[in-house]
Write a structure and sequence with these properties.
With about 525 residues, this protein is mostly helical. Among the domains are: about 60 residues, Orthogonal Bundle (Helicase, Ruva Protein, domain 3); about 100 residues, Arc Repressor Mutant, subunit A (Orthogonal Bundle). It is built from 21 helices and 12 strands. It starts with 12 loop residues before the first helix and ends with a helix. Bound molecules: glutamic acid and zinc ion. The site of zinc ion has 5 residues, from loops.
């Protein structure tokens, strides 16, 4: 960064954006709706989002939906749902300004055709009339090792322009880029530094406009990045090999290319590219499992970037302020599912009780906590659910854990096996006595708060000469149906003494007839 003159004003973030970087940052996330949104895409979207915000710039969403064979509306819906869930907003759309709809390439076909023609006119592209059969034969020969050509053999590259133009009237054609041979293409990646490719190694004269009039990815991507004034392209490293070609295209159009920054790969812990083999990868799966969007965003923001040494928790605003290209790592990022779970548990604990209840409610409805799966709570159930949220806050790792952990509050759990009630080193006889002590303790806790109830329990244990743990264990099993449960006295308070005593009596019956 260099100073370009006197700076009378203090260097606030705004002042910096205006003074040092004369242009407004505009970046984009440009997914192809050919699959569900996944972690890799989320990382790309997030880094673009954070980068734009960190520089007071604009973040654009652009659907690259020109591959009609692989298009599915389902994936478009999934993209919007994921964005909504994550709280991402794009800053601009075709009707400009308004963030209503993003840019969609299939609505802009005329622009790509016009630009392909421009390259024909300036000699940087040509019509190709090769039939699909001819191209197939080429491919087969290559695969059989009978040819060393890397791809298209540039068969139509030297057809005289006049003749080619005449043929377009009656023959089907594609438009191909005329890659200048014998030269090198260099671009400066913001993360990887200078990257140099021999043009002869770039895919030979790739198609820009297909015979059906649709652009290929390369044409639509470059034309749109230019028309939309994109200043920075932050994208996955798998696109690095397309960038020499894109650089050649910018030159052919006479345009200045944007800054390219190819983000570090995201790997599984075995060092292989993150995939389904490693675990959940689609945003949908994370959502269904009960991850919080802010936990996921916090974790993903650290995939390939370091902000402050040793710090792990960042709010979205902090990330927006801290992000910069200098903080990206070159080394691949490793996706650690356990670490993400740690984040999720942390974020669950950071919620208010009411906030957590609201977040967990849809999972409880989905999983049938209030009746049939999908049925909503009645007023009493809703009040109970809200009151129970603090009991699970400290223990839940996923929102989807919560309904299961609280099930015993909403329906009577089956009475467990006798052996479940018996504390270590105790007999069945002892256990009956312990549970009877627990019964009278329960009756006495009515009306006290959880700490008061706990004090009573300690007193009882002392007075009766039993261990507190041994006193509470059979009681917990009787009331919650399990040895492991949310806090016992909170549970007793929420269930009410009457329900608890009934459960204890059923358990005592079982212990009497083991
Ligand atoms: N449509 C491409 C994709 O699916 C965009 C790549 C780029 O960002 O240039 O990832
Ligand atoms: Zn051809």
């Amino acid at each position: 960064m260099e100073a370009g003159g006197p700076h009378p004003e203090p260097l606030t973030k705004n002042a910096m954006a205006g003074t040092f970087f004369s242009m407004e940052v505009r970046d984009r996330y440009a997914p192809s709706p050919t699959g569900l949104q996944h972690i890799g895409g989320l990382r790309t979207a997030l880094f673009n989002y954070l980068f734009a915000k960190s520089r007071n710039g604009k973040f654009i969403l652009r659907l690259e939906d020109t591959d009609r064979a692989r298009f599915d509306k389902l994936y478009v819906d999934n993209l919007y749902e994921s964005f909504e869930w994550l709280g991402f907003h794009w800053d601009e759309g075709p009707d400009s300004g308004g963030p209503a709809a993003p840019y969609v390439q299939s609505e802009r076909l005329g622009k790509y055709r016009e630009h392909a023609r421009r390259l024909i006119e300036n000699g940087h592209a040509y019509y190709c009339f090769c039939s699909a059969e001819r191209l197939d034969t080429l491919r087969r020969e290559r695969e059989a090792g009978r040819s060393n050509e890397q791809g298209y053999d540039r068969h139509c590259r030297n057809i005289a322009p006049d003749e080619a133009a005449r043929r377009t009237a009656r023959e089907s054609y594609t438009i191909r880029l005329k890659i200048p041979l014998g030269e090198k293409t260099v671009f400066n990646d913001a993360l990887l530094g200078p990257v140099e490719w021999k043009n002869d190694d770039v895919s030979p004269d790739p198609v820009l406009l297909k015979s059906d009039g649709f652009p290929t990815y390369h044409l639509a991507n470059v034309v749109d990045d230019h028309l939309m004034g994109i200043t920075h392209v932050l994208r996955a490293q798998e696109w690095l090999s397309s960038t020499p070609l894109h650089t050649i295209m910018y030159r052919a159009f006479g345009w200045v290319p944007p800054v390219f920054c190819h983000l570090p790969m995201v790997m599984g812990q075995d060092g292989k590219k993150l995939s389904k083999r490693h675990g959940a990868t689609s945003i949908d799966e994370f959502r269904k499992k009960g991850f919080l969007p802010d936990a996921l965003l916090n974790y993903v923001a650290l995939l390939g970037a370091s902000y402050e040494e040793g710090r792990e928790i960042y709010t979205p605003d902090e990330l927006c302020a801290l992000f910069s290209l200098e903080k990206l790592n070159k080394a691949p990022a490793v996706f650690d599912y356990k670490k993400l779970e740690w984040y999720n548990a942390r974020y669950i604990r950071m919620k208010t009780d009411a906030g957590l209840a609201a977040l967990a409610l849809p999972y409880a409805v989905r999983d049938g906590l209030f009746g049939e799966p999908g049925s909503p709570p009645d007023t009493r159930q809703l009040a109970l659910f809200n009151a129970a949220a603090p009991l699970v806050k400290e223990r839940a790792v996923f929102l989807s854990d919560i309904p299961e952990k609280l099930a015993y509050l909403f329906s009577e759990p089956p009475v467990p096996e006798t052996s479940e009630f018996i504390p270590k080193k105790s007999s069945l006889e002892d256990t009956r006595r312990l549970l009877n002590l627990g019964r009278s303790l329960t009756a006495r806790t009515a009306g006290s708060d959880d700490e008061g109830a706990e004090r009573l329990a300690k007193e009882t244990a002392e007075k009766e000469g039993v261990k507190l743990g041994d006193l509470l264990m059979p009681l917990r099993v009787a009331i919650t149906g399990s040895r492991v449960s949310p806090p016992l006295f909170g549970s007793i308070r929420l269930l009410g003494a009457e329900t608890c005593l009934a459960r204890i009596d059923r358990a005592l019956e079982k212990l009497d007839r083991p």
